[in-house]
Design brief:
The protein is of the alpha/beta class. It is built from 3 helices and 6 strands; from the N terminus they run βββαβαβαβ. It has a 6-stranded mixed beta sheet with strand order 3-2-1-4-5-6, with helices on both faces. β4, α2 and β5 form a beta-alpha-beta unit.
């Protein structure tokens, strides 16, 4: 069980290498989410969650439901469409844009306050959103 000062952060990832993985530019179609538990500004635990929909279909809402069930409070993204963003925000999950490089880089930027919190607009201009 998480304490009040622990945050569970999810980062869309290209591989299952944890904090060494590259950040995936597309939130909904990433292969994995790296989950980092951060307490008092320090990374306490890292795990990897597969982003596989049970029905095998791509759904904008499926990753948000998966992350909510996993107890995630914050998501760090480089790109996200409006519908998945609204789905996350609607579940009380805060979303921060500007995550690039490796997962470790994104976490460092977040902890340093360098990422911008997103609210109701997506950051991805892809035609599929």
């Amino acid at each position: 069980m998480k304490s009040n000062n622990t945050t569970r952060i999810a980062i869309p990832s290209m591989t299952d290498e944890g904090i060494g993985a590259d950040v995936c530019a597309h939130f909904g179609s990433c292969e994995y989410f790296t989950i980092a538990e951060v307490s008092n500004g320090e990374i306490r635990n890292v795990s990897v969650l597969s982003n596989v929909s049970p029905d095998g279909e791509h759904s904008c809402a499926a990753p948000a439901e998966l992350l909510e069930k996993s107890g995630v409070n914050v998501v760090l993204v480089s790109g996200i469409g409006g519908r998945p963003l609204l789905s996350l925000v609607g579940k009380g999950i805060r979303v921060f844009g500007g995550a690039f490089g490796r997962v470790s880089d994104a976490l460092e930027d977040y902890l340093a306050g360098a990422l911008e919190e997103l609210s109701g607009r997506g950051t991805c201009d892809c035609s599929h959103h």
